[in-house]
What we know:
Strand 4 (about 135-145) and strand 5 form a beta hairpin. This protein has nine helices and twelve strands. By secondary structure, it is α+β, with helices and mostly antiparallel strands. The protein has helices spanning about 5-55, 65-80, 160-210, 225-255, 260-270, 280-305, 320-335, 355-370, 425-435; strands spanning about 95-100, 105-110, 120-125, 135-145, 150-160, 315, 340-345, 350, 375-385, 390-395, 440-445, 445-455. It is found in: Membrane. Its main location: membrane.
Amino acid sequence: MLRWLPLRTTLVIGALAAVALAGLTLGLLQMVSMNARELAQVRSEADAAVLSSKIASLAAGMSAEEREAEILTLVAARAQEATDGGRCDSGERARALFLYRAKDGAVTGTPQLAWPGGSGEVRFKVAAGTACQRAAATAIGVIEDAGGAGQFLSARIYSPDPRLVMRAWLIAGGVALAFVLLAGLLAWALMRGWRSRLDKFNALLDRADRSGFSERAEADDGQPEFRLLAQHLNALLARSEDMIGGLRRLHRHVAHDLRGPVMVARRHLEALEGKTPGEPLIADTDAKLATIDKRCRMLLGIIDAEVSRGAGVDTVDPAERVRRLIDDMFVYLGDDKDLEFHLDAQPARVRVAGDLFDRMVENILGNAVKFATPETTIRCTVASDGATVRIAVENDGPGIDPSRIERIFEPGYSTGGTDSHGLGLAFVKTVALRAGGDVRAFNVANGFRIEISLPCVKEGAGE
Length: 463
């Protein structure tokens, strides 16, 4: 049953139980105090009744002076009796207090006790040393008329019965002990369940490397905290598995495809041997070094996209970057085939690393130039519908067998012969997916079209 309780609920229950224990203790002590106060009230009223009876029994023919003298004697005797004749050896806790106040304001009775204000039932403080009290206390009593001769006070000091106080504390202590034992049992049961779950998580993490991060934690735990922990752990394992899988794919592709560019670079360098130095050799060397640089940048681009996900993300303007690539590079690359470039671009913003975006567009432009029919136009468009930005490059060329179109984005797959290594469009696919978009290709009338779609960044979004 405890395993189904959320941790917060368990702590709240424990806190409420502690508050209830404190309330119970205070309640018991309050009950003991009320009992002592009520008992003192009853006894003071009884004392007042006895004193009133004695005053009423005085002879009717007595003069006022004689009557007042008798009342003073009665009050003094009662006050003396309350303190055991001044010895304070009876152990009485609720000591009686008696005062008589004459019409002229003179007060007689219990020593060191001042006349309290008020009338009828009164409650007042009693200083330490009064009526055998070692410490300040509280008294409760009544003020009554002394038969026209003045007023008298009959009161009792009240304090809780030590036996009742002890019983209250014993009850509270017993409840506290039971609560501690129950809390310990609850903590033991919870910790036992938590320990077993944490051991499972630790064992899963220990096996993660050996299992290739493919194993998952049970996410149907009845306790919400552990269910949420399992969900987060599974998300972390899934991401780790995806990352490891990407690195393994990268290793296989680069190991396979690196051989081709390296061999091309080696052959270019070998072709330079034995040639006579001069302008033709320098130009040939520049061209071959440019080819080597292009191959290396393609490989580095795939490594950046696979390994550095989300690193260096920018908010870029696709139209501006496509226009700059055409003007700076492809106008000259298209001269060999007398190609024209036409750009139809709408302003838009996408979130992607600027360098990776440039390489991605460079690859599809280079692919269009490579397979374009001479003396034709390569058409580039950048269009946005508010949610998605589409960057498309279309040429007039031979097209591709529809059954093979999806494969052109696979690393290592190429339709360009020995001069192609199957890295360029694979890189385009990788970058587009990492940026939350996609890329697709299809045949059009008299040509071929590659279209990249990326999420559009809304106006005012943070850079």
